[in-house]
Every structure is written in structure tokens, then in C-alpha cells.
Amino acid sequence: MSKASVTPTGGRDKTPAPRRPLTVLIGCDTFGPDVNGAAKFAERLAAGLVERGHNVHVVAPAAGRKFGTWTEVHESQPMTVHRLKSWRWYPHDWLRFALPWQVRANARRILDEVKPDVVHFQSHIIVGGALSSEAQKRGIRIIGTNHFMPENLLEFTLLPEAFQTAAIRTAWKAASRTFGRAEAVTTPTRRAADFLEEYTDLSDVHAISCGIDAHRYKPNFSADVPNKILFVGRITGEKKIDVLLKAFAKLPAELQATLEIVGGGDQLNNLKNLAGVLGIKDRVKFAGYVTDEQLKVTLSGSKVFAMPSIAELQSIATMEAMASGLPIVGANAMALPHLIHDGENGFLFAPGDVDGMAEKLERVLTMNKDERDRLKNNSLRYIRGHDITRTLDTFEALYRGETVVDPDPESTEG
């Protein structure tokens, strides 16, 4: 089976008995309106669980100065969100955090009020650490999901380079301690699971895709799509957007290619300056943040999606591009090879290889429509293995303490 396989309990009646809804408490260090993969996954998970009839509470830092508990609507579903008093981390362009000792006090209060069946934390750093510690004392089932790589935050810590190795080691020890409280630990891909097991003392980490509702995206097989290259994501160092700009600058002028970069981040001004230095400023659009509907239109109006990042634990943006039927050109790093099947739905290049990326982009832009349609159809085929229904089925089983088999994203059935 491609979804969670539940251990049978016996009995002759094969009709499943009605199952009571669960009260699920999801703990996040980042949640909507934040724009990043971890926040987007938490939103989709929470909304999917609400749609299935579960009582969902989310604990997350306040998005501004106002904090407290109220109902919010995410992915068209209402849920109870407990917003914690938070502060801006000014080295980062949007990050807000709650003070650990205040989170601990709030965790005690919220757990005693909500009395959840399960706590599912999305990050071990602050909120997840406090919730898991207090949940463990109360005998509440704990599930932990990792979206975190310490290296991604180093540039925002202001630590001198000499101290960064020690900081990474400390961060992984903290991760090991917090995730060690969980009955089950998950991360979006098998490579990310292996990575987590390598750097902590954890074992048997589940690889469960973040999932996507592919039916919400609109592939465009028109022959009139312009030679537009699209990148979507945070404008930060680990995304290696400078590699994309340099590769784009090498494309033949006769292609009349354009590049659109959707997202925001601390490297935005640096990259705009680089586009000017490379002489491509008039052909590069920095669109900033866009709405979900605007993004869908942009995806449908692009010819190829580019992802030069070296630090993707899954890449929801790449999954959205695949659901839009786009060929993908991406770095052969971390989780991207799980999504990009070289020569089938796009092409991989060596991380940081400007010439290699340029060659792959040019190949997609110059191939005939039949060949490009083959890549597009394969993107649509492969994304079926990441259907959000499989993800929700598996997490529901984990919440109930049932035996599960990780969904196989290589399976395209269903």
C-alpha cells in the first residue's frame, strides 16, 4: 500500500468502526503568515486535520505585538491558535521568537487547558522543546517533525566563524534531546531522515512527505508560453540564487529569456546589485511576496522552474512547480534528487556549477514542444506520490499509536 498500513486488530466485521476525533496540539516556531516551507507544511497539516473533523490547536509566536488565543483561518479552515508574546530577531528579515522561559509557562497552561491527545512539534528549538518537555510529564503522546538544519541559521546568529562549528554541534545535541522525547520522529524525505540520524543519536526516523494538494494547480501545455525561468523561495544565502543569476546571464541573447524571482529575504538587495553588475537587470523581475493565487498564475506562465538551493529538506516550492507541470532544473543536493528525476522531469546539476546550470536551462528552453511536454507530464506523474491525503493518513496513524509504513513517494498510484 502507498499510504499508512495499519496493523489489523482481528474480528470478522471488515467495516471500520467510527473513530473518535482527536485533539491535536501543533507546536511551531514559525507559522503563517510566515512564508517558508516549515510554516506552509504546518498550515496544510493543521487545515487537513480540521477538514477531517479533528480538534486542532496551534501554538506559535505572535506575528506582531498582539498575542493571545483566538480563531484563525488557514488554508480555508478555522483553527484555534495560541499566539505567544514574541520579539523580532533583527539579523533576520522576518523571524520572531518567544522567550524560552515564557514558552515553558505557556506550555504548561495550554496543555492543562486543551488536554490534547497528541502534541506534534515542528521544531525542537523553542516551542517544540517546551511543549515536548511538559507533554512528557503529563504522559501525552508526542510526535516530532524536523524541518531544521543548523547551518541555515548560522548567518543570522552573528556568531564569529570560529564559534560556528561548536554552535552547530550544540544545536544537534539539543535536537537529539528534544526529539528523543517523541514516540515517533519524522522528516520530509529519506535523505533528510538519514541526515537527522547521522547527526543525532536518533534511529527509525520516518520519511513522510510534506504533501501537496496537486489539484489546486493548473498545468499549461500551450505552445505560447514565453521563455520565463521561475524561482520561488526565501531570498537567503543557502538558496544560492547568485548561481541562478550567473547562469541566467550566460544564456544566449536570442532566447529572449526572462527570470522571475518570487519571495523575500535578507539577500534581496545584494542580488539586485548582482543583477546590475551582470547586465541582466532589465530581464530579471524580483516580485517579492505574492498571494497563493498570484503564484499559481505565475507558475502556469513559466516555462521552467529553477532551484539552485543546497539545503532543501524537501522543497515545497519545487513540488508546487511540479504540480503546475513545469520541468525542473535543480542542484543535485539534499532532497532535490527525490523530486527531480534527471532527464525525466527535468535536470540536475552539480551544486554551485554555474555553467552546468546554464546548460540545463538552455536545454529546456530550446527543446521542442513534444520533448518538453514529456518532462511536464512526468512532473505531474511524480507529484502524485506526494499527495497530501497520504501524508494526513500517515500522521493520523502515528497520532493514534498505530503501526505505519512510510508512504512511498516514488509510487504514482492514485
Q: What do you see in this structure?
A:
Pfam families: Glyco_transf_4, Glycos_transf_1. The chain has 414 residues and is α/β, with parallel strands linked by helices. It has helices at 37-51, 100-114, 127-137, 161-179, 190-199, 241-249, 268-277, 292-300, 316-323, 336-339, 354-366, 369-383, 388-399, and strands at 23-27, 55-61, 68-74, 77-84, 87-88, 96-97, 118-121, 141-145, 184-187, 206-207, 228-232, 258-262, 284-288, 304-307, 328-331, 346-349. Helix 1 (37-51) crosses helix 13, helix 2 (100-114) crosses helix 3 (127-137) and helix 6 packs across helix 11 (354-366).
Tell me the strand percentage band: 15-25%
Q: Which strands sit side by side, in order, in the main sheet?
A: 3-4-2-1-7-8-9-10
Summarize the biggest pleated sheet: 8 strands, mixed
What is the general shape?
globular
Give a count of the beta strands, DSSP E runs of length 2 or more: 16
CATH class of the largest domain: Alpha Beta
State the secondary-structure class.
alpha/beta
Which CATH architecture of the largest domain? 3-Layer(aba) Sandwich
Mean pLDDT over all positions: 88
The CATH superfamily of the largest domain is identified as Glycogen Phosphorylase B
Stated plainly, the CATH topology of the largest domain is called: Rossmann fold
Helix content: 25-40%
Q: Which parts are unreliable, with pLDDT below 50 for 5 consecutive residues or more?
A: 1-13
